């Protein structure tokens, strides 16, 4: 393949992509389009307002643990990710007897409990 034909093929691909509808396309997200909402998208329902309230409550440097009693690994992982996102100034720990704060889910509600 000559350089001229390779350049023509690349130009054709770029032109074809320019004609793709962007409105509801996954390519729009790759291009930095608007998101669905200002809240992150978790795989399980988590109350963003309660997480924001926890963010305002837990001081920087305090330790916290996440607990979802009876939760699946997917649910527990999403709660852990939410804690790391919203409580980024605090320190996550695995041992639930150690931290000052417990971020948990009970009956579908996100709860923040102070232990000390």
Please give the share of residues in helix: 25-40%
Task: Give the class-level CATH name of the largest domain.
Answer: Alpha Beta
Mean pLDDT: 86
Shape: elongated
For the record, give the distance between the C-alpha atoms at the N and C termini, rounded to a whole number: 72 Å
Architecture per CATH nomenclature, i.e. the level-2 architecture of the largest domain:
2-Layer Sandwich
Gyration radius, to the nearest Å?
22 Å
Say what the CATH topology of the largest domain is. THUMP fold
Number of helical regions: 4
From N to C, what is the helix and strand string?
HHHEHEEE
Descriptive report:
The protein has 116 residues and is α/β, with parallel strands linked by helices. The chain folds into 2 domains: 1-35; 48-114, THUMP fold. It is built from 4 helices and 4 strands. It has helices at 3-18, 26-30, 48-57, 73-86, and strands at 63-67, 91-92, 101-106, 109-114. It has a 4-stranded mixed β-sheet, covered by helices on one side. Strand 3 and strand 4 (109-114) form a beta hairpin. The chain is elongated. The chain starts with a helix and ends with a strand. The mean pLDDT is 86.
């Amino acid at each position: 393949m000559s350089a001229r034909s390779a350049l023509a093929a690349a130009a054709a691909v770029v032109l074809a992509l320019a004609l793709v509808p962007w409105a509801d396309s996954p390519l729009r997200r790759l291009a930095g389009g608007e998101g669905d909402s200002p809240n992150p998208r978790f795989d399980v329902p988590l109350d963003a307002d309660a997480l924001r309230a926890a963010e305002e409550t837990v001081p920087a440097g305090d330790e916290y643990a996440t607990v979802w009693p009876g939760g699946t690994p997917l649910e527990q992982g999403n709660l852990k990710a939410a804690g790391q996102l919203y409580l980024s100034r605090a320190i996550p720990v695995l041992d639930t007897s150690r931290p000052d704060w417990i971020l948990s889910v009970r009956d579908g509600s996100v709860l923040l409990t102070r232990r000390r």
